[in-house]
Structures are given as structure tokens and as C-alpha cells.
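Input record (Table S2, row 383):
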Amino acid sequence: MNVQINEKRLLDTFLKLVTIDSESFSEAAMQKYLAEELKKLGCTVYVDKAGKKIGSNAQGNIIASLKGSRAGKPFLLSAHMDTVRPGKGIKPQVKGGRVTSDGTTILASDDKAGVAIALEVLRVLKEKKPDCVSVQVLFTLNEENGMGGAKNLDYSKVKGRDGLILDNESVNELLVQGPEVCDFNVTIEGVAAHAGICPEKGISALEVAAKALSMMKLGRIDKDTVCNFGVICGGEVTNIVTPVVTLKGEARSLYPQKLQKQVKHMKDCFDKAAKAFTKRVDGKTIKPVIKIQTPQRYGALSVPKNAPAVKLIVASAKKFGVKMKLVSSGGGCDANEMCQHGLVMPNVGVGCRQCHTTKEYLDLKEFYQAAAIVLDVVLSYGK
Ligand SMILES: [Zn+2]
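Output record (zinc ion complex):
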């Protein structure tokens, strides 16, 4: 039986999807369109209630299932419905093996190329009815602003464990590892004093911050760990010893233990700075008060090299002449969140490039290869 991707239909689907505006928080039209398409394909479609929680105008994430002939857990395919800006009124142009925008907007191949591939795989399965397991697709809201959709997905409706996220760039790169990220929100309260008359009676929160940062290891800590302070705010006039500053930073590591070590080091530097500025004034001890919050932004992505989806996709890629490399990233994606819920889903490339810019384009050769590989993985799963 000739079970193959229909490249023309896949491209047409993609071109249609990019004309449905779906900037983050405004995914309603896209979500409705996809839910309808999935119903037409014979899927059971469930839309969860995540939209309200994350401030989207859409109802929620889509979890849809297409029943296969074979028993066993369904294979999962996931892509996100939202896009970055400027993503309104996209006019796709197909030329020289590529799809681009007209240069005034993004193209939205991140991640509508992934959505189109998932739909095409379902269309092939419905049309050819090959022997295969059921497939569940997860189309998420608001990936681009910290994976709000994946964070609030109704995981009780997800019946599979193994799968693929279709949201990376090069077709030969499979993302299996990504960092845990810890935010660093710091408020330093010094002591205000007149800078002209009695500066010795004050404690400059700004100097305390400078002291702490000067002692801190920042930037690249090691090959797996990085750290940065990106925002400092405080002070109003030059004749007052700065009473308060706030700082915002972050630390990332592929390994939780390394991250915790770095976070401890950073806290220690603030402690030391506070001690260094503690002093006696008019018979009383004054000291800076430093409040630090370190909430986790998202957990690490860690897919074992011998996970079923990894082994299958490496083998499938080979059949289509693609040598798959397992890679790690310094950023996060839906895979990070899904990993926290026990799903084992590496993130595969769909052929897009220069995402998040108006120069974004989709390489059609890679796009078609990615679709063929994903279909082959679905057909091979659970055999
Ligand atoms: Zn994306």
C-alpha cells in the first residue's frame, strides 16, 4: 500500500493556516478552525478550558484523537497554535523552494508548519487506513510566552506517553534536552539619607546591588549553565542615598543540581553584600534588607536517548536520507512542560528558519521530509 504524504495538500494546508491570524492571546479563530478540521477528519475533539486562565480569547488547547486499527497507547503529535508578532495579515509567497512572508510580517511557520504536518499525517491515516495505533494531537495555546497553554493543558485527557513535538527548525535536529529556568526577583532596601549632609547615615541600595553583582559569577557558568541579570530599577534623585532597588535576573541549567548550586551562589553573594554594608549609626545597627524570590519559570526537558520516539525517529529519518542529530537548547518549548507531566516527546524540526523575524522562511524540501519522517514514525510505533 502506498501510504505517503501528499505534498501538495500539505503545502495548501500550510498556506491556509498562515492566513488565519493567531498572535499569542488571540488564537480563537485558529482554534475554532482546527477543531472543525479535526472533526471533519473523524477525530474525537476535546477543547480544554485553558484559554481564560492564560488570558487568551480562545477557549483552550485542542486534544483530538483519531482511532487506529491497532491496540495500544496512542502516539502523540503536538504543535502550538499561537505566533509571535507581527503576525496579522500574513501574505505567504512560494518561490524557489521556499515560502516567505511579503516581508512586513513573520511567516508563522513557527509553528503552523508543525500544525500542518500533524493534520496531513491524520489525513493520510484517514484516507489510506494503514495498520497503526491511534494518534492523539495536542494543539496548544500561547507557547511563545512561557508555554501557558502546555502549563494549563488538561493532561487527564492525554492517553499516550510517547510522541513528538513539531516545533524545531532543521529537519535533522531533534531537541532532547532543554534547561530548567529559575527567575531571580530581588528587592534591596537600603536606608535613605541626605546625600549632601549625612550620607554616612544611609545605606545605598544601589551600592549593595553593585557589590553583590561584582562578587557573582554571571554569564556562562559552564557548558550547561548560564546566568544573567537583565533589569535594575531604583532611585529618583541624586541627593538621596538610594533607598530601594529591584533587580530581575535568571539562571538556567540543563541539570537541576547545577542550577541549585548556581542559585545558592547568587543568594550567598547578596548575603555577603548585606553583611558588608551593615554598620552602626548613632548607636544603632543598620543593615540592608534583601528579599529574594526564585520561582521556577519552567522545568527541564530531558528525553532519554533510548526513548521509543527517539529511536523511531532516528531510524525513520535514515530511510529518507536524513542523519538525525540529538541536540540540546538553551531555551524552552512545550516539550519542557510536557516532560514535567511524564510525556516523552522530543522536539523535531519542521524546516522553518529565522523564526521570530520578518525574514522567516520555510524550506519546502525539509518541510516535506519532516512530514514523511513523522508519518513513518507514527506507522512504526507500537509494532
Ligand atoms: Zn514555536
